[in-house]
Each structure stands twice: as structure tokens, then as C-alpha cells.
Amino acid sequence: MNKPVKKAIFPVGGLGTRFLPATKAIAKEMLPVVDKPLIQYAVEEAIAAGIEQFIFVTGRGKSALEDHFDHSYELETTLMEKGKDDILQAVTDLLPNPGSVFYTRQMKPLGLGHAVWCAKELIGDEPFAVLLADDLVLAPGKSCLGQMIDVYNETGGNVVAIEEVPRADTKKYGVLDVISDDGKTAQAQGLVEKPNPEDAPSNLSIIGRYILQPEVFKELDKKERGAGNEIQLTDAMAKTIGNIDFRGLRFEGTRYDCGSKLGFIEANLAFALERDDLRDGVQNIISKLNK
């Protein structure tokens, strides 16, 4: 029987340079999509998938993120006194259970692999999830991570979320070298980080959702540099293939790249259109702008 996935890592130490000057004083993960910050969507997705321990790999200037997942007694008291019970509930419902949230610092920005490695001692000898808040997934039913855990419970090994991208975009992603593909899951014999389009083994790219076995830390321990002179998680995962099965899941849902300005704007529109209280107003705004 496969060990259950109960821990998740959230790498949130990045500088958010693509959103400067907005991210000069706040973490990019705190940028709001409609009325919730990106990181809250990721945490809610993890909670819905059964995650019980939440590990944030932070950096300097991330105190607002830590405060977001804590009580704000002055705010809560004010809302209570004014009878704004619905807002109060929205503020308090987002808080994970006491003792379930952990923070560790990535003191130098050495890549995603290094960020994950910083959580090694908190993971121990257990499988774990990694969620990148930049990749926001709007799923019609079960969350993206929930779908991945269903696959993991059947197959074990490493499982990542994948989607097909245009060949020209493979240089932006980790790409699977596939040996079998049933249209839903693809088994990989290798991974390539950010290959040029002519060198890419496929157009199946990994997005920011991973379920990994702790053996990946043995490779991350080596601190080997890859693309961009950074410690790449994709490279470490690739080296475990052969000893650990590796599968990519074509998840049900739409992924929005909130690390880009256009993707962030699109996500705000898409999530607003999903809400009964905003849909008509947003459609009216879009109609006006199209005139």
C-alpha cells in the first residue's frame, strides 16, 4: 500500500520581478485573484486534497504571507462588533489547523530544486506534494491535486500535472520523454528542463503540481546546477526515474499562468465569471471594453 500524501511544500521565496513595482513590498503570492491571494487558492486546493501539514519555503519580505495564515484579533473583533459575520467567517475559515503550518527560509534564490530541498528535514521519509501558487487551476470538479492523489493512490511513484503546450513554448517548462500514454496518464522514461523546441522529446510540459517520493532529496543533496545555473527540481526527478515510476496526469481543468501579466489578468476574469455575484457585472464590463 502506498504511503498517504499528507505534507505539501509551497515554494514562496521568489522575488516576483515580473510584477515589479507591485511586488516591491509584498510577496507575489499575495497578489489577489478577485478577492483571495494566489497562495490561499493553493492552500485551499491542498486542504481539499487531504493535505494536513503545510510547509512554506519563504524568503525575506514574506511576513505578510505568514500573517495571512494567522489570526488578526483586531480585525476579527471589529468585524464581530459590526455584525459582519459573513466576512468574519471568510477570514477565519482560511486558517489551517493550529500546529499544521511550518516555515523555513530559502536564504539564496538558487532555483526550485533548492527551495524544495530547504524543506527536507520537515518532510522526512514521506511522500509529499509541491504546489506553485503561480499556477492557478480552475477545475470543474475535484481539484488538480486531488486528481493527482487519486492517480498516486493507484500507482504510487512520482506523479506530476501535465498539459500539452505549443512546441515553441517547451523552452519554458520541464518536458516529459514519454514511453506510454493512454490519453490521461503518460509514463515517462526521462525529463528535460526547458529544452529548445527542436530538442524537446514531447510537448507534454509539467505545471506547478507535483507528488514526489523522498528519494528525490538524495539527488537534491548534490546541489548540481542545471538550466539557468540553478538547482532544478526537474533534473533531480529525472535521476530517480528507473528506480521510481514517473507519471504525468492530464488533469481536468484550466491552468492560468499567474506568473505572467496576461495570465494573471485572464485568471481574474475567469474566476470572477465563475461567481454568481460577479458574473453579470464582469460580462457587462467586457462588453463595454469590446465596443
List the helices and strands and how they pair.
Layout: E1 7-11, E2 32-33, E3 36-37, H1 38-48, E4 53-58, H2 63-68, H3 73-81, H4 85-93, E5 101-105, H5 112-117, H6 120-123, E6 128-131, E7 135-138, H7 144-155, E8 158-164, E9 174-181, E10 185-193, E11 204-212, H8 216-220, H9 233-240, E12 246-250, E13 254-257, H10 261-273, H11 279-290
Molecular structure report:
It is a single chain. The longest helix is centred in the last third of the chain and has 13 residues, at 261-273. This protein has 2 domains: 7-259, Alpha-Beta Complex (Spore Coat Polysaccharide Biosynthesis Protein SpsA, Chain A), CATH 3.90.550.10; 260-291. A hairpin with a 3-residue loop joins strand 9 and strand 10. The chain contains 11 helices and 13 strands. The chain has 291 residues and is of the alpha/beta class. The strands form 3 sheets. A 9-stranded mixed β-sheet has the order 5-4-1-6-11-8-12-10-9. A two-stranded antiparallel sheet has the order 2-3. The protein is globular, with a radius of gyration of 19 Å. The chain has helices at residues 38-48, 63-68, 73-81, 85-93, 112-117, 120-123, 144-155, 216-220, 233-240, 261-273, 279-290, and strands spanning 7-11, 32-33, 36-37, 53-58, 101-105, 128-131, 135-138, 158-164, 174-181, 185-193, 204-212, 246-250, 254-257.
